[in-house]
Specification:
heterotrimer; A mainly alpha (about 300); B mainly alpha (about 300); C alpha+beta (about 550); A: about 300 residues; mainly alpha; 12 helices; B: about 300 residues; flat
């Protein structure tokens, strides 16, 4: 990671002389990465399904199709005739509509969760790194302490204690991951702070907040973006684990984790589509995030140039 | 070094205290208590029971007594749910189970993950590389609660080779599926980290120099490249070991191994305060311990890092 | 086969006294050839909290205790009283004093004789506040003299109305007349416990290495959250008629996982997951079993001031009651031979005469039409009503809640917000009346209508929903002293069908996958009190 810190400012220094900025460079490199570009495209499709899906679905996500109820294994398979493109779930509800709804929830958990982690982690880490000294010491000691807390257990506890709620889930999964982020950001900030151009800016009397906004944050963006992209799939995985434990979102809402866990438990009864479709969305999306994350790292990490 | 370890161990004390107080308050603020049941107990009966378990003391006193009991006698108290067992007994029974298959899964994940990652890195952009990367991402995104039923379907129901669950004193047949289900996703992460960090090292100047000197590929890998490339892997392994044990909740539940993860979820749901606290503290200690081990390993591998 | 089984069980006791010791491998009554291996492995969904007879409170603990210990009386396969440690009992004219005669050949697993003093000790232990038993309310139900004062700590346990007159005679004095008291002695809290073992080991006495018990089996292995093993007790007085050598209980929390392991041959009995009975009975006709049980699944309506105002109108409650299509729930969701319920008391309950229930005889379309009319009459539009439906975490509860909420939505336009909570949170929300409609299930502890309808009393501990009806309270009081109270119960159901404080949904069936060689499972015992010593495996 320290390589990025050294390299990024170089790119930054280039900016005024040439028209090609670090970001343009990065974009060019990213677009050359075929896996990442395809992933971005597929991810766009998944998001499109999440947004437009409700208009395409013949059924709502909670409506029960009474005509297939009672013999799901034979009547509930995917079919275009009755509008159940993905078949139906155990209760005769349209699986397409439910997958669409689950996609919305899971993506939201992933994105909101990592936004919380990234925002909080960046602010915390940047403050500690920039202020430095004793403040830095205390703040990082606190991170060390918090890192020793078994978060998965605390999350389970939180959900048991306060009941299931979407917001608690967002906050819960977000809070798990901000610590790592804050450490990375602090390290980067420390490195940036000792750069000549920051010292120069200080020397000519530029105010601290201007330095942070003009110099520190822009140079941190690369790391933040990479980390955030890699965080999203982790969040989605955490959510699915919580759903498996039965502590996920409240019915009739659903999520990928809940759908997959339901589908997996009834696998042996021949209703394979109940696992296949949500799992396919889940896996494809996670693949995409991993490839995009890798692509971004290669693109924003200029040492391979 | 010794000073560093002592300092870290001292720092663990406030951490654990925060953890204890936080969990204690969280648990006690949960709706319902260990003795709320379908049929509400007559008040006098409830009073008798609460007196027996000292639940009628004020909270700060309860926390104080608890901490004193833990520190002075290593006594985590009786289970509220299981009448003939103490927390120590529950942990003594469940933890070895989790530790056994957790450790095996950990070793499997590290060995296979590193092998996969090194193979991929040394054959960058070949079909072997794509294959290894594909496998590892696939394994990483397949949740173990999907893996578990699929394994059971194949090995228990179709092939009839392995028992579908249980522990049975730790016979190997009972361990195979829990180990596979637990290790795959970690193996995948390790492979990915190993691959990218080895690639980074292989492109660095000192390896180029070594190559220029005419060292064999094998010598370059084992004498020069591997050690620095292991650094990111090691920093991943510390928390991972603990996560593998806490992440074993799914495995415990699905294969009913009787491990600690199952005990934790049950205790949280049953409001078995003492068991829940005991396991939280245990996992907290493990987390601290393994973070410490990672730091020591780090210093050992990379002498530039000062403790 | 069912008639043979019934015959076998009714005669097993009398014959056992005459028959010579068991001949090699033939069942003494049915003469059926026995399998060589007599090991029964079954699934329990959850670990028992205790197998201390006075502390246990869960079903799975009860199953263990009935094997490990033996009370004064037992139940046969139809729930009738048969002798246990007591050979017989006498009651005085007004059923307030019972005298039990104990057999002289009953032994504890350490060789000590089982005496009336053991029972006196255990019953006092149950009521003693120092025992702090969550099940001590059962002592109150038994109505022993002085029990309330003893439980409150105002009186010494020695004052309790139970006394060993000699080693083999136990005298029980009750505060009120109670005709069904002997039935209570088949319940686990009344089973004897060994004072010397408890004194020696404290709460550890129920561990395999310490336990002393007087039943047909002894506990030999216990791995919490995984398995427990009980094995034949050679000192049991009727050991010669015990056939199963070993009984193993495996803890498997997930229904589907348990079924997989059953199908893989690891289990001899497991519950059928919701909705899978039909498919399984097609594939395994000899193994899928379904039989009626005396349990009711119902929704109760909050009638306190915390509720949705519309629910205070009986017409709205009736509309909700009518629009639940019970046939869809039993035939399409549960599919395990459950019975649609229109009354709280199951029809199968002894001496229960079901009232004329107009709703039961209508078609569902008529019910729906009437419901819409009622709702309009009450002056509510369905879309103005939003109800919180509270249920605890379970696959089956979730399915039923979702289906019922859709029925209400599609037929009445009423929105239901599903509130799934963990058990303990659920209990808290229920007792704080933080719901509009809640889920409940109830199994009658006895085969009497009163064991259901008592719940409708305004003072019953389960009455969290604030329902109170003077006529029902009077009818219940009156029924306690009546020789034949069945009229009262019919009338109570009639009142319920005008007030609708609850929405009965279905009456349970026991739905199992069971090894087809396992014999004598007491399907006719509505309380499902089964004893391993009566089961056996037939040869192939």
């Amino acid at each position: 990671m320290s390589d990025t810190a050294i390299a990024a400012p170089d790119g930054h220094v280039e900016t005024p002389t040439k028209g090609r900025s670090l970001w343009q460079d990065a974009r060019r490199r990213f677009l050359q990465n075929r896996a990442a570009v395809i992933s971005l495209f597929v991810l766009g499709l998944v998001c499109l399904v999440a947004v437009l899906g409700p208009f395409l679905a013949a059924w709502s996500n909670e409506e029960v199709d009474w005509s297939v109820l009672g013999d799901i294994a034979t009547l509930g398979a995917p079919s275009f005739e009755n509008g159940h493109y993905f078949g139906v779930d155990e209760l005769g509800r349209d699986l397409f509509a439910r997958v669409v709804q689950g996609t919305q929830v899971s993506l939201m958990v992933g994105i909101v969760g990592s936004l919380i982690a990234v925002t909080f982690g960046t602010l915390y880490g940047a403050t500690a790194g920039y202020v430095g000294g004793r403040t830095d010491n205390i703040m990082m000691r606190l991170v060390d302490i918090l890192m020793s807390i078994p978060y998965m257990f605390v999350l389970i506890l939180l959900l048991v204690v306060f009941g299931r709620s979407m917001w608690l889930m967002f906050v819960g999964v977000g809070l798990i991951s901000w610590l790592e982020m804050s450490r990375i950001v602090r390290g980067q900030t420390l490195a940036l702070k000792s750069k000549e151009y920051v010292e120069a800016a200080l020397a000519i009397g530029v105010k601290h907040h201007v330095i942070v906004i003009r110099h520190i944050i822009p140079n941190l963006l690369g790391v933040i973006v990479i980390y955030a992209t890699l965080l999203v799939p982790q969040m989605i995985l955490t959510e699915s684990f919580i759903s498996f434990l039965g502590l996920g979102v409240q019915e009739p809402n659903t999520s990928w984790g809940a759908l997959i866990s339901e589908g997996a438990s009834t696998l042996q009864y021949g209703t394979y589509w109940q696992l296949f479709f949500p799992l396919a969305f889940f896996i494809v999306t996670l693949f995409c995030f991993f490839f995009i994350g890798d692509g971004l790292r290669d693109a924003l990490d200029p040492k391979d140039r | 070094m010794t000073e560093f370890i002592i300092r870290r161990l001292l720092a663990a004390i406030p951490t654990l205290l925060i953890l204890i107080i936080f969990s204690f308050l969280l648990m006690h603020s949960a709706p319902g208590g260990p003795f709320s049941s379908d049929r509400p107990l007559p008040p006098e009966v409830l009073a008798n029971i609460e007196a027996k378990y000292h639940l009628d003391d004020p909270l700060p006193l309860q926390i104080w007594n608890y901490v004193v009991g833990v520190v002075t006698q290593f006594d985590f108290g009786p289970s509220f749910q299981y009448k003939d067992r103490t927390v120590n007994e529950i942990i003594a029974q469940g933890f070895p189970v989790t530790l056994t298959y957790g450790t095996i899964a950990f070793v499997v994940a590290v060995v296979c993950g590193c092998a996969l990652g090194i193979t991929a890195a040394l054959n960058q952009n070949s079909w072997l590389d794509y294959f290894a990367v594909g496998i590892s991402i696939g394994a990483q995104v397949l949740p173990n609660f999907v893996m578990a039923p699929i394994l059971v379907l194949i090995f228990t129901l179709w092939l009839g080779w392995l028992p579908g669950g249980g522990w049975n004193g730790g016979q190997w047949q009972y361990m195979v599926m829990p180990v596979i289900a637990l290790s795959t996703s970690f193996m995948a992460s390790i492979a990915r980290i190993m691959r990218s960090s080895l690639l980074e090292v292989m492109h660095s100047n000192f390896i180029r120099t070594a190559r220029a000197k005419g060292l064999s590929a094998r010598a370059i890998l084992f004498q020069h490249a591997l050690k620095p490339a292991m650094l990111p892997v090691i920093s991943y392994l510390g928390p991972t070991f603990v996560i593998m044990i806490t992440g074993s909740v799914v495995i415990d539940l699905y294969f009913t191994t009787g491990g600690i993860g199952q005990a934790f979820v049950n205790s949280a749901l049953n409001r078995d305060y003492s068991v829940m606290m005991g396991i939280t503290i245990l996992i907290g200690c493990l987390t601290i311990l393994f973070n410490l081990i990672v730091d020591i390993l780090y210093a050992w591998i990379d002498p530039k890092i000062k403790l | 086969m069912t008639s043979k089984r019934a015959l076998a069980l009714s005669s097993v006791f009398s014959i056992s006294l005459l028959a010579s010791p068991l001949i090699a491998d033939v069942h003494p009554v049915t003469n059926e050839e026995l399998a060589d291996e007599q090991v029964f492995t079954y699934r329990v969904g959850d670990e028992f909290a205790s197998i201390d007879p006075q502390l246990a409170e869960d079903v799975q603990g009860g199953e263990f205790i009935r094997d490990l210990f033996e009370g004064l009386m037992n139940q046969d396969s139809d729930g009738n009283l048969v002798p246990g440690v007591a050979t017989h009992f006498e009651a005085n004219a007004d059923n307030t004093v019972y005298t039990f005669q104990l057999r002289d050949n009953a032994k504890w697993s350490d060789g000590k004789p089982v005496t009336a003093h053991d029972f006196e000790y255990s019953w006092k232990r149950l009521a003693d506040p120092n025992t702090a038993s969550p099940y001590s309310w059962f002592a109150k139900e038994m109505g022993l003299v002085n029990v309330k004062a003893v439980m409150a700590g105002d009186m010494d346990p020695s004052e309790l109305g139970v006394k060993a007159l000699d080693d083999h005679t136990l005298e029980v004095r009750l505060e009120n007349s109670m005709g069904h008291f002997p039935l209570m002695t088949t319940s686990e809290p009344t089973f004897p416990s060994p004072k010397w073992a408890i004194d020696a080991h404290g709460s550890d006495w129920t561990k395999p290495e310490n336990i002393v018990s007087n039943g047909a089996y002894v506990l030999t292995e216990h791995v919490p959250q995984e398995r427990s093993v009980r094995e034949r007790n050679p000192l049991y007085w009727n050991n010669q008629n015990t056939i199963l050598e070993r009984v193993e209980a495996l803890v498997i929390s997930d229904d589907n996982g348990a079924l997989t392991r059953y199908l893989a041959g690891e289990l001899d009995r497991t519950e059928v997951p919701t909705g899978q009975y039909n498919a399984l009975s097609k594939e395994h006709p000899d193994e899928a079993v379904s039989f009626p049980r005396l349990c009711a699944y119902y929704y109760f309506i909050n009638m306190t001031e915390n509720t949705h105002p519309s629910l205070l109108d009986p017409r709205v409650r009736e509309a909700l009651y009518l629009t639940v299509d019970r046939d869809v729930i039993t035939n399409a969701i549960l599919q395990g031979g459950e019975f649609p319920a229109y009354t709280f008391t199951p029809d199968a309950t002894a001496n229960f005469v079901s009232p004329n229930n107009p709703a039961r005889d209508m078609t569902q379309a008529d019910r729906d039409a009437r419901a819409s009319a009622l709702l309009a009459e009450a002056g509510f539009g369905g879309d103005e009503i939003e109800l919180d439906l509270l249920y605890n975490t379970s696959e089956a509860h979730k399915k039923i809640a979702i289906i019922v909420s859709q029925m209400w939505k599609q037929k009445l336009g009423i929105t239901t917000v599903l509130q799934n909570m963990e058990w303990k949170t659920f209990l808290e929300a229920r007792s704080n009346q933080e719901f509009d409609i809640g889920r409940a299930g109830w199994c009658g502890p006895y085969n009497l209508a009163s064991s259901f309808l008592d719940l409708m009393s305004s003072t019953h501990v389960y009455n969290d929903a604030g329902f109170s009806n003077d006529e029902i309270d009077e009818l219940l009081d009156d029924a306690k002293t009546k020789a034949d109270p069945s009229e009262n119960f019919t009338r109570i159901e009639e009142v319920l069908a005008t007030e609708f404080p609850i929405i009965p949904i279905y009456h349970y069936a026991g739905v199992f996958m069971m090894n087809d060689k396992l014999r004598n499972w007491p399907v006719g015992n509505v309380e499902q009190k089964w004893y391993s010593r009566e089961l056996y495996f037939a040869a192939d």
